[in-house]
User: What shape does this take?
Amino acid sequence: MKSEDSILAAIAGYVDTLGFVALFGVFTAHVTGNFVLIGAEVAGFGQRAFMKLMALPAFIAGVVVSSVLLRSMQGATPSRAACVLYAVQAALTLAFCLAGVGVSPVVHADGASVIVCGMVGAAAMGVQNAHSRLVSRPGMPDTVMTGNVTQVVPDMTDMLSPQTPPGIKVAARARIGKILPAVLAFATGAIAGAVA
Assistant: This one.
């Protein structure tokens, strides 16, 4: 599917930002961002490290479930494997949204229901992150945009430079055409998650 990366990027942007805004700064997709926030807590500048700590095992659980599921489906086509992971991710993402509605308005970040909500979101994003590692398909990272933005910048530089050979410009334009829609979709998802 040509727009698969953009759709997944929009979902990741939405879920990560919604979790960050509504659940006192927990990252669900950029789960390593929680390490930074935990470090700030240790230094006396953060708050509510427990929820951020709990996001990591939940994220890992999403990856493990994905791996075990696909291992049990040996011989399945990449398309079939992708469908199974999409179904698991959709169920977890729906559970995250329903749990969020159930705990609203969130007033106590350390409440069990709030922590479970964040963990379910992190598990959903663990499944999405595992997908690109476990299912062979052309594509790009769709939950973390740093590498994608890093690729777009030198490609744009190559396209704008008069000294760039035509063949390199064509390749750069093709990469930008693949990457930029996902970056913009992630940003759109993040904005939607922030205002949700």
Q: What stands out?
A: The chain has a mean pLDDT of 92.
